[in-house]
Structures are given as structure tokens and as C-alpha cells.
């Protein structure tokens, strides 16, 4: 900016003094205030970024208007100014003043324009961040109790259109979760048929009808038990994280009274998706309960009475399984990893799809019942040349049925393992990882069981192939969402060994497990539950428990420098299941068997249960078994020699 070095005024007329003041202002480098765009008076004091250019300051001088003809009070000839060594007066002084004024005004206008642009950018960024915070607050409101976060649809600063869009998007996400959960539940019911087909294929022909009836009755009883008491005990209200009390069972929703009012599902409304998700979760966990309750049925086949089988289903479906499910899976449960405080060993037990809750629990009850009820008739007999009982093979009804059931269980496990992930839309990578790990682990386990069986017996058994596959499903069920494919491979290898060695151990101690359920679900399930503490990847662990964990929690796998905490936590969970389920089932079954008896009479077992209780054994009709001599008579000229 040009500078005026001196101003000399030879008159005291008011307007001349005003003009002299303006010229002095120009000489000091100040800017005028009478410009088209008013200068802002303040700037925001906080925000996402600072405004680098301060607001232009207001100046006390008006714009100069010096003209000899403008007013008789001020004559420019009475004023002189020296600028850059040159003295100006009269018209030249007027031109100098106008030039300096225009230059200063242009600079001032530029400053104002830049400041206004930066202020608009700042306000836009502030509005964006504010809206994002409101969106985040609204989306997390239902799961958040921190701060003053309120539902985002209550925020007045967001437009109605944005609010409506958010509600629709949130509703769609929730409905996707509902569909995924229902899909998992549907596949669980199909898997239940697979387990039944496998068990029917493994029993003898004299007990096939009995096995089918027993399984259907226990399944029906399991549905009633879950509806009446099981769901409330498993997922009812519990204030353990706040008070430290309970943590073992829920205290409401018995007889599922929250399902009586279907108006929200029929009439719509804000709670439609929440009601649908509640129904979907009920059905999913009912399917898991059915699988668990059905495990002892296969073990006890061909000797346990219907009363004893119903007792086992009742105890498991009402007393044991709901409590274990609450402790491990409910957010308020004692061992649950799905919360932020009062965690077991600061971690909680990871059991994504039920290696402990479903497989181990059912197998422990089956083991207690099998020990108390004893083996099938003539399963172990004394030979003349042997000092101890010798295992006698039992001809199974249909290896094809067994294989068919195993394939159904394997296919459905792909969906059930994946859809046991809690939030399908938010945990997409976790779902895909669970599916891949399930395939790798189950295939590896089946192959390992066959290899070990061939090594020890010289036979590649179809029972070991199918049982090893299901053992792999049980092994990976705990850590399917948090382990790597390499970890799933190792877990499948160890799970296959556990299945085979567990079955061999049961034979050694003469525990008759008809369907291999104890070794298949129990030994493999415990191994999988513990090995999750070894192979839980830290990155995958954080993805699965993003809302309750921090990277340095140390709850991931020991082989990933996570320390012994995870292994200790998982082992503690496995031992708790064994102790709780084993103690209750042993006491109840033992008392019942001593008081009433849980086996069919030996004479009835000798004749065959189907013959005594189910209207006769299953057999092919004579027309199907005997050849028809006239079948091809017309084709071969009536010559019966061509009969088949």
C-alpha cells in the first residue's frame, strides 16, 4: 500500500478536518468501513477447524470525499500533502486521495470476501459433523446408556427427510437380520431331521420305529419346554452387570407372554422390526434347544424307556440348557462376552454357535444317562477264551440312512454356524469367515477320523467319516467367527482325533453310545471350546466384539501373543458346563433309575422293542422279497427260465 508521509492542514473548517482525518487514516494503512459488504462482527470460537483469516476490524473513519466544489467550507487549495517526496495540492491532492482510497477499498473487499468464504466452509463442516454425530447417536441409542444420547429422530436440528431416510435404512438393516436369523432357524430344523436320519440308520432293525417315536416325542416336549420356561430362563431379565446378582438365569418372559400381542407385526409401527427380531431369535434358539435335547436320544436308543427318555428331555430342556444358554449367550449372563463390564476374567467365554452350550451340554447329559442306564443287551459278552467282556458288533439298520443324515447335518451347519452371528448386516465379514472355517474344520475332522480308524483297525468306516464330519462342526462352533482358516484346519485335525479317541475311551470303559453322540458332540465340543482360546485371531476377535473389547484386552488367542487369559476363560467355561450338567443329570437320573427303573425289561429287549411296543418290526413285504415267476413271461415267450 502507498504511504502518505505527511499532511498539513491550513484551515480548521469541520469538513476539512474530516477530510484530513481520512487522509491520515490512509497514511496509517487503515481500511475504510463504508463498503458494500459489511464486515462481520464476530467469528465462531470453536469448531472442526480454525479460520486462518480474522474478521476485518471496524475503523472509525468515513470514506473521504474531497472536492473543491463539494462544499464552500473546505478548499483543497488550503491543504497540502507530501507523498514519496512529492508535495500535492489542489486537484492533484484530490486525485491522490481517491487513488489511495480505491486501493485500500479493493484490499478490504478482498479480505471480506475471503473471510466470508472461509466462514461458510467452516459452518458447512460444523453442520456436517453435527449431523454425523446425531446420526451416530440415533443409531446407537438403543444399545447405549452413555452420556445424553437421545434417539436421533428426536433431534430437531436434522431435517425430516434425513430422519425418515435413517429410519427406513435402520428398518431395512434390521429386517435383513431378521431374515438371516429365520434362515438359520429353518436350517436348524432341517438339521434336526438329519440327526434323526443318522440315528435311525445306526440302530438295529428291531428298534427303528421306537427310535423315531422317541425322537419325535422329545422334540415336541422340547418345544413346549422352551415356550413355557426355557426362553424366559435363557433370555429373561437379569441385572447382573449392574448389581452383580444372579447372572445365571432370566426372570421373566415365561410362557413367552411377549408373543401374545401381535399387533405390532400386523399393524406396523416403529417397533415392527424389533418384534420381528424377537420372534426370529426365539425360533433360532428353539432350534438350538431341539438339537441339544435330541443328543441323548441317540445315545440311549434300544434300551431306555419312554419315561426315562422324556425325563432326560425335560431336565435338559427346562433346567440345564436354558441356564447354560443364559450364562454364555445372554448379554447379562455370567460368562457372556457381549457386554462392557463384569466379564469373566475380563474377557468372557467365546461360544459363537454352541460348542459348549449345545454340543457339550447335550453330550454330558447323554454320558450321565448312558452310564446309569447301562449298555444295550449283549453289547459286551464273555467268551470262553477271554478274561473280560468282549465288544459285540450290532448290525445297523441302514448305512445309507446314516450317511444321508450326516450330509444333511453338514449342509445345514454351513448356514446355522454363520447365522448364529448376532448382527448379520454389521458382521458380514464375520459371517463369511464362519462359513469358511466350518467347511475347513469339518472336512479335516472327517478325514482325520478315517485315517486314525484305518491305522488302528485297517478299516475305513462310514461311521467314522460321518461322525468325524459332525465332530468338526462341534469343534469349530465355538471359534468359527474369530479363528483363521489355518486355525480351523488345526482345530479340525485335533477335533477328529478327539472324536476317535473319545469313542475308543468309551468302549474301553464300556459306555454304550449308539449314535457316537458323546464322542462326536462332547469330546470334540470341549476341545473346540478350549482351542478357541489358542487360535482366536486378534483382528477377527476385535471385529466380532467391537463394541465391548479393545485391542490390548489380551482376550485373543495364546498363539497370537494374547497370553493365557483366553485359554483359562474357555477352559473355565467348559469345566462349568461339565460340572453343572453332569451333577444335575447324574442326581436326577440316578434317583429315578433306582426308584422306578429306566430300562426296558430284558425279555422285551430280547424280542425287540418294535415288536413289543410299536406293532411289529419293520420288514419288507413278501411281494418285494420274492421274485415273480411271471414277471418277464410275455417278453421271453412265457419261459420262466428268464426270471430274475
Features:
mainly alpha, 644 residues, two-stranded antiparallel ribbon, disordered C terminus
Give the N-to-C terminal Cα separation.
118 Å
What is the mean predicted local confidence, pLDDT? Answer: 79
The H/E string reads EHEEHHHHHHHHEEHHHHHHHHHH
Tally of DSSP helical segments: 19
| Shape annotation | elongated
Walk across the major sheet and give the strand order.
1-2-3
Largest sheet: 3 strands, antiparallel
Report helical residue fraction.
55-70%
* Rg for CA atoms: 41 Å
- Enumerate the spans where pLDDT stays under 50 for 5 or more consecutive residues: 1-18, 29-53, 57-74, 141-148, 150-158, 261-270, 621-628, 630-636, 638-644
Assign the structural class, choosing from mainly alpha, mainly beta, alpha/beta, alpha+beta, or little secondary structure. mainly alpha
Strand fraction: under 5%
Report the strand count.
5
Summarize the structure.
59% of the residues lie in helices and 3% in strands. By secondary structure, it is an all-alpha fold.
Report on the structure:
The chain has 644 residues and is mainly α. The chain is built from 19 helices and five strands. The chain has helices spanning 14-27, 90-140, 160-202, 208-235, 240-243, 263-267, 272-299, 306-329, 355-373, 399-419, 428-457, 462-476, 485-508, 517-535, 538-544, 565-595, 602-607, 609-613, 622-625; strands at residues 6-9, 79-83, 86-89, 380-381, 390-391. The strands form two sheets. It has a three-stranded antiparallel β-sheet with strand order 1-2-3, covered by helices on one side. It has a two-stranded antiparallel ribbon with strand order 4-5. A hairpin with a 2-residue loop joins strand 2 (79-83) and strand 3. Helix 9 runs antiparallel to helix 14. The N terminus and C terminus are likely disordered.
